[in-house]
UniProtKB/TrEMBL annotation:
SMART domains: AAA. Residues 9-254 form the ABC transporter domain. Signal peptide: none annotated. The lineage of its organism: Bacteria, Pseudomonadati, Planctomycetota, Planctomycetia, Pirellulales. Gene3D superfamilies: P-loop containing nucleotide triphosphate hydrolases. GO terms for molecular function: ATP binding. Keywords: ATP-binding, Nucleotide-binding, Transport. This is ABC transporter ATP-binding protein. Belongs to the ABC transporter superfamily.
């Protein structure tokens, strides 16, 4: 069990600008946010407001201009590249709107690919039986074991997203970062993916942060943050699986530090 103060991932005072033609474009202007272990949190905000930028920083795919990222009690943004890679490869799973599957590989090969890349050839050969069993188990977890040998072109969008989810689970991560996981799917298929994410959250104790454009989806989250003008506002009215009202014991985690 987790308490509401049990933050698995935290961003403190995050600032990030992009530069174009010597002009500075401030995107994140001092974001403070904490993600509670065991919760499914939605991140909403208009297009271009910086949601993906924040997620990239949380995943250490990019570095903030200033501010800190903490995971499970350790500061991670200032670690060496190797340490950040290790964090990304072992503690978190990432899924994207457009799945990012390799088109020439089958479902099971896609699930295995990151584990193969991370190992030396010898290491892969040594572990391959175990890895394959794990990949099969993950495909089974998302209900797609019978599609193991299908290529992405032979699968629907929802099936491709499930393969991407299976791939993200390979390293047994504590947390899943999902950037518009239903953004490319029809409502019904999107609902199936959401149910799967909720199942992983509740049954496998996976903490989830999910970017979405869809307020109806955000309302199903335990907690919702809205990105606005480079800052994050918490919306404590949208909590607890769509039941409106202030969640018992919830703390306002996002502060707007300009
Ligand atoms: N590499 C880059 N160089 C310059 N500007 C960038 C770069 N990446 C993103 N931006 C700009 O930063 C802003 C925030 O982008 P970001 O993708 O984080 O927004 P978002 O809220 O996720 O949008 P969407 O909901 O449309 O995906 C946008 O205005 C975008 O054009």
């Amino acid at each position: 069990m987790h308490s509401s103060n049990d933050l698995l991932l935290e961003a403190r005072g995050i600032r990030k600008s992009y530069h174009k033609d010597k002009i500075e474009l401030p995107i994140l202007r001092g974001v403070d946010v904490g993600f509670v272990a065991g919760e499914l949190t939605a991140l909403v905000g208009r297009s271009g407001s910086g949601k993906s930028t924040l997620m990239h920083l949380l995943a250490t795919l990019d570095q903030p201009d200033s501010g800190e990222v903490w995971f499970d009690g350790n500061r991670i943004d200032n670690q060496s590249r190797a340490k950040r890679d290790q964090y990304r490869n072992s503690q978190i799973g990432i899924i994207f709107q457009f799945y990012h599957l390799l088109p020439e590989l089958s479902a099971i090969e896609n699930v295995l690919a990151p584990a193969m890349i991370r190992r030396s050839v010898l290491g892969y050969l040594r572990d391959r039986k175990q890895l394959r069993l794990r990949a099969e188990a993950m495909l089974d977890r998302v209900g797609l074991l019978n599609r193991s040998h299908h290529q992405p072109s032979e699968m629907s969008g929802g099936e491709m997203q499930r393969v991407a989810i299976a791939r993200s689970l390979m390293s047994n991560p504590k947390m899943l970062l999902a950037d518009e996981p239903t953004g490319n799917l029809d409502t019904e298929t999107g609902a199936t993916i959401l149910r799967l994410l909720r199942e992983l959250n509740q049954e496998d104790d996976l903490t989830i942060v999910m970017i979405t454009h869809d307020d109806a989806i955000a309302e199903t989250a335990d907690r919702c943050y809205r990105m606005c003008d480079g800052l994050l506002e918490s919306n404590d009215a949208i909590v607890s699986n769509g039941q409106s009202g202030i969640k018992q014991g919830s703390t306002k985690l996002a502060t707007a530090a300009a």
